[in-house]
Amino acid sequence: MKKTLAVAAMLLLANIALAAPDSSAGVFIMASDQVTTTTVSATESRGLALLEEEDRPVSARLDEMRALVKSEQLNATLMTAYGELLSKSGDDEAATIAFEQAIALDGKLYTPWLWLGILAKRGTPKPDLAKAESSLRRALELGAPKARTLNELAVAVAMAGRMREARDLWLEAVPDDPQWGVLYGNLVKACLALGDEKTAFAQLEPALKAERFNEAVVLQLGTHLERGKRWEEAESLYRQALEKHPMNVSYNLALGRTLVEQKKPDAAIECFQTAKRLGRRQGNATSAQQAEWEIFRIENPKDEATFQSVRELVFAQSADRRQLERDYKKAISRLSPLIERHPTFWNARFVRGVAYRRLDEREKAKIDLEAVLEIYPEEPNATMELALMTRDNLDFAGAAKLAERAVELAPRDPIFAVNAGFIMIEAGNCDRAWDLYRQSLRMVGEENTAPLLDQLNLRCPAKE
To answer: Are residues 295 and 276 in contact, defined by beta-carbon separation less than 8 angstroms?
Structure first.
């Protein structure tokens, strides 16, 4: 029986992927040679299996993992799995403690060192780059996957301001895993920051051929050319990329913008229409919206200029309440004829809806914001505005549902996470409010999330 359990655990360890905290981190594998005992208990096997059960909520798996940790004498394998689940839940502070405990129990496992470095680099409330670097170097010494660990180390070194050293680490990592597109993207970014254009452009061909392709390489090189107003070179770059990846929405958008700069509106519209079609087909609402906006700008330059000036009125910052009210009313009067001419131009409806909401004309705001979602059901800003207005109407359950949807549509927007956190407090969902606080904390730091933390401590004190 013990032998069977040991073999099962070895197989589990060989196939567990440690989810990366950001796009630069990649995926990390716990290899079977990390087992330092001859047998693995049923408790350890269950703990490792919990990492695989992605169809179950992290919170439910964490509850079971905590019970496992309490039921057996601490060991490094179980504590490492516990740390990973804590990190997945957004509780990096507790995860760090778990990985440090795992290292104290068995300092020869590379996985907890690797995770310790990742979390220190990510940092809450701020990164500890010295700790990140030392932990990642230790993970390398213990046999952690070279390319992926070098990538994490290079990111930490770059964050510390040693860009030349970071570039050299990425150059070392690429030959170890030439099919991983993230490496090329990070390497190109470092080279361009150093003014090393030759090395940067040398990565284009292998990056386009990489099996685990990452679009960042082309976009970084293209942006570099655009900043230098090298439009023909940029066009050539994007066309080369589209030959290899014709379904890439970002490249179609970028090519269209480059053609606009070269006064080729018809060709640009064709690119934007392709981007819009692909964006909708691929569920990429943001890119589809961008494409539609670019088409509108080309076809309606005067109305686009009017819209931009009106938008500034609505979103201007001023302490003069009376002036703001005058600006909102002026914006509404100028937007209404524009909406009549372009009924599917959702941007104008959104801005008018915001103006109505700020004037506390909630029914009119609701009509406009819901009209936006009829045109684009996946528009996050209108969804969050509706969530805030629903909260103002004291429908906290309805507001929480809309806020959750907005965060789902814009997971990298810290303002959405903070606003959703406040709404969850009102709805009585303290666990979710804390999750959103930790999410926003990682994105914008302690200072910008302090108001939410104050309310959490007051109304949702953390469980011991």
So the answer is: yes
DSSP for 294-351 reads HHHHHH-HHHHHHHHHHHHHHH---S-HHHHHHHHHHHHHHHHHHHHH-TT-HHHHHH
Q: What does pTM read for this prediction?
A: 0.75
pLDDT for 225-247, tens place per residue?
Answer: 999 999 999 999 999 999 999 99
Q: How far, in Å, CA of 307 to CA of 317, rounded? A: 18
Mean pLDDT of 185-210: 97
Q: What sign does the dihedral 405-409-415-417 (CA atoms) show? A: positive
φ, ψ of residue 378 to 5 degrees: the values are -105, 25
Helix (H) or strand (E) holding 28: strand 28-29
Nearest residue to 32 (alpha-carbon basis) of 147, 111, 149: 111
CATH superfamily of 1-160: Tetratricopeptide repeat domain (1.25.40.10)
Closest CA to 28 of 14, 46, 38: 14
Second CATH level (architecture) for the domain 393-464: Alpha Horseshoe (1.25)
Q: Confirm or reject CATH 1.25.40.10 for domain 301-377, answering yes or no.
A: yes
E strand or H helix at 29: strand 28-29
Contact between 451 and 415 under an 8 Å Cβ cutoff? The reply is no
